[in-house]
Amino acid sequence: MSGRQHADIDSISGLESVGENVQLPTTYVVIKLIPDIQEKALQWLIEKIQGKKTDGGAELIVMLQPKTDPREEYTLHISANMVKLLEVAEDIELIKMDSQGRPVEFTVAQMDDFLIDGKKVDDLITLAERQSIILHELGNIRALTYEKSVPGYPSMKLYENQAVIPFLQNRQLITKMYPLHDEEQLKKMAGYWYLSRLTKQPINAIKDYFGESITLYFAFLEFYTLALIVPAILGLCGTIFTETIPFFSVFNVIWVTLFLELWKRKSNELAYKWGTIGMTSLDEPRPEFRGIMGVDAVTGKVCLQAPRYITYLRMYLVSLPIVIVCMVLAYWLMLFSIWSEDYVKLIEIEEGGMISKDYLIMVPSTVYSIIIPVISAYFKDLATYLTEWENHRTQSQFERHRVTKLVLFEFVNNFLCLFYIAFVLRDVEMLRSQLRTMLIVSQTIYNFQEVFLPLGLNHFHKKSQKINKNTNPETQRQKEKATEACSPLLNIPQLQADDRRIKQAENESRLEEYQDTFDDYLELYIQFGFVFLFSSVYPIAAFWALLNNVLEIRADAFKLCTLYRRSFIRKSKDIGAWQRSFEVLGGLSILTNCGMLYLSPDIRSRFPDYSDMELLMAFMCLEQLLLGVRYLIHIAISDKPEWVRVALARKSYESKQALKFERSQRNKKILYRFRTVQ
């Protein structure tokens, strides 16, 4: 390490060290605990956070926020000094841009390569990365052999090497854990983001602030929305002309394939720029992963391990049957909705009645469309619980198996009724009506859940807080009592009562938690299915999807910046299991649209001399032809752009050369001992 690096780190370390009268420099993460938590448990947790790694601790800095009410939650502010941040950044192989503009793993020994464009050591790790490092260290707090239970809670049993923070969250001793927003940076980014054109989203700024996973969602939403423009225009034209089923059956199949293949290229391009393209199953285990310590056969490192066969047994013998039962129940609910609509059609309504029969017929499908998101929310909780119980090692594995369960259920919940109407009832008008109703109702409900519901809840919390303050004469006395009670309690530094971080932490605590991008992708997945599975029947669906998505980008940006707490960044190299889910829908769209073409009265009227069997064989041949075209497009378009393939090959070559050089230097030292004297 250079002398300049030593000087910089030493000075920063001195500034951020916590002494008796030194304040915490920056709050990176806030932890809230229940108001009546046992003092022993609170003291134990704080000691764990501050403690050495050899004692199962995290070696982080903790400050206590003064309580203003005995009923108020305990609030811990967590930070770390720069030495700790740099040490962990190297340990977790944080990706940073070097002086040559390449995404490489950060190392302290080569720090000069990362100090570019006038950067100082303090600017090297962004706030989002610091918060992610804190989360990583908190997740690695483990129970020791002699710690059999949480102090003060003998019934809360611990096992050796158990992750403490997830356990306390699961037992609801920790109620919330979240990083604080950077208000200045957020305001600057949001102002541009809300008003930017569709192709001008601040992708790099979003990535630096929210992380790769959320940014990939916005990049995908932008790419998908742009790709909808042509189908939307053609769909509007299709409302003018009749007999458009043959054209849209073929066009949309080709379009869907092109869109998904080109997105893979775009995704790999972004992943390379962000340094996540090489993510593998050997990445860090999830904090919730349960197992025993052992030597990894691949890396040789000591880490948590669990038999993989147990996970598979749980998946196939327990989770899969439960998912199938839920799918069957969703199927029967769908049948009940269709039977209800058939029943309504038989009802005789007098002329001039209060309700028109045309509107009454729409009631079952509308009610069914409203029930679907409610059922989906309950199943999401069930799928999350089952996937957690299966005990997957990495976050990517966990997400992949959770998404698979949810996609299977959502396919039945949302699309099976359309298949039933199309191929069992063979009622094109009913199919068009059902598709229109489900598309509009689902998008309305999702937008309400994402924006208006959190907005209303935030407004309600603010109003109720103001009323409580104005109507409670005991407030000031309780504040003094609470402050006196918790001040000497833990013998750790305490924030001043007027510290601005207290107000910020409390304001953000009242916001909704943004868990992940699952609901956002699910909304697009369902919309994608509505638009393209039966595009030949309702081609204008692409226009409504385009209009919704233009608003969706702004709405999602608004909710992340205003209505939700900041989430910890998550690294991601692609959209994961969602890519395969969209591809499956793309493949099914070939079958459904060819099927609709076969059932089309227009086609049958044009070929009156052909029997049903001859027409069926003809459309089966067309289906195979389109599947062949899909495969040709798949192999013709490379998943990675040429420049990405070259860059990856160059990196591999340089790694081999560096290894070869290191080996040659080591060999020289060995051979030097056997030199001969002339």
From TrEMBL:
The keyword Lyase is assigned to this record: no
A single Gene Ontology CC term: membrane
Ranges for domain Anoctamin transmembrane: 206-650
Pfam families: Anoctamin
Position of the signal peptide: none
Entry's transmembrane regions: 216-241, 247-263, 315-339, 359-379, 406-425, 524-547
Locations listed in the record: Membrane
Keywords for the protein's UniProt record, in alphabetical order: Membrane, Transmembrane, Transmembrane helix
Topology of the protein relative to the lipid bilayer: Multi-pass membrane protein
Database matches in InterPro entries: Anoctamin, Anoctamin_TM
UniProt similarity note: Belongs to the anoctamin family.
Protein name from the UniProt record: Anoctamin
Species whose genome carries this gene: Hypothenemus hampei
